[in-house]
Design goal:
Layout: E1 3-5, E2 11-18, E3 27-31, H1 44-49, E4 57-60, H2 77-90, E5 96-101, H3 103-114, E6 119-125, H4 139-151, H5 162-168, H6 177-180, H7 184-190, H8 195-206, E7 221-226, H9 234-243, E8 248-252, H10 259-262, H11 266-275
Parallel strand pairs: 3-4, 3-5, 5-6, 6-7, 7-8
Antiparallel strand pairs: 1-2, 2-4
């Protein structure tokens, strides 16, 4: 299995899901959110690679989840960003479009700031610039988020818990949670959240702050948000789009935090926008 070596010697698992003979095209690296491994991209890498324009797709497990090492925390966002850069180096990707959702979008911002020569573009989904600019979720959403590693899996196993569905989906989509999030229970059973690692990643979120530095980002950037995201409200994405020079903002209507679940074409559209 391929591993990169991140700060402190941590092994960071990654996979190159597809290749392209176009060496001039940047790779696309997908970075997942809090407590989630690359497994939670499901068929997205294949969907992106199988389009009209072949792409080299790289996925990784952030430290603390999946097959990557799980050193004791707290983690720092700079460390998580350097892990991504280490993966790019190990995979032989000189440049990449970094696609990140939620925590992954925060990491992507730090990759662009710390390793600008490695980043050909950014796609930032359902994310925030952090304090002091962040608009926080409501207390009920925070309580659900903090309770996830305690539950550790969905109950009953064949269904997605209603409270989690409300956290991830727009209100109109909650009745369809079993369909839209059908692959989540099996993924959670295969790789349950470890409370120690979950809160180590959450510590990085708590200290994340890029707002005053986003004007330094020079690569093409697309920011995507759902207008019914109760976990990271859409205001946060609108702010990022204002602060990153030339950034394009897409607001997906009647959509919650798990944008790809409700709108599977959202990343493809963003990548097309970057190349156009």
């Amino acid at each position: 299995m391929p591993f990169a070596t991140g700060p402190g010697g941590a092994r960071i698992y990654y996979e190159v899901r597809s290749e392209t003979k176009d060496a001039a095209s940047p790779a696309v690296v997908l970075v997942q959110g809090l407590g989630l491994s690359s497994r939670f991209w499901f068929d997205m890498p294949e969907r992106l690679a199988g389009g009209a324009k072949p792409r080299r797709l790289i996925v990784l497990d952030n430290r603390g989840v999946g097959r990557s090492d799980k050193p004791r925390g707290p983690y720092r966002m700079a460390t998580l960003a350097d892990d991504v850069a280490a993966v790019l180096e190990a995979a032989g990707a000189e440049k990449a479009i970094v696609v990140g959702i939620s925590l992954g979008g925060m990491i992507a911002q730090h990759v662009a700031l710390r390793h600008p020569d490695r980043v050909a573009g950014l796609v930032l989904l359902a994310t925030t610039a952090g304090f002091p600019h962040a608009r926080l979720p409501k207390a009920r959403a925070v309580a659900t988020l903090l309770g996830l590693p305690i539950v550790g899996r969905f109950r009953p196993a064949a269904q997605v818990g209603r409270s989690l569905a409300r956290l991830l989906l727009a209100e109109k989509d909650v009745p369809r949670a079993g369909e839209l999030l059908s692959q989540w229970p099996a993924a959670m059973r295969a790789e349950p959240m470890l409370p120690r690692s979950y809160f180590a990643q959450l510590a990085a979120v708590a200290t994340h702050s890029t707002g005053s530095r986003l004007k330094r980002i020079a690569c093409p950037t697309v920011v995507v948000t759902g207008d019914e995201d109760i976990l990271i409200p859409a205001h946060n994405s609108r702010l990022i789009a204002r602060l990153v020079p030339g950034a394009h903002l897409e607001v997906v209507r009647s959509c919650g935090h798990a944008i790809p679940a409700s709108d599977p074409d959202c990343i493809e559209r963003a990548l097309v926008k970057l190349s156009g």
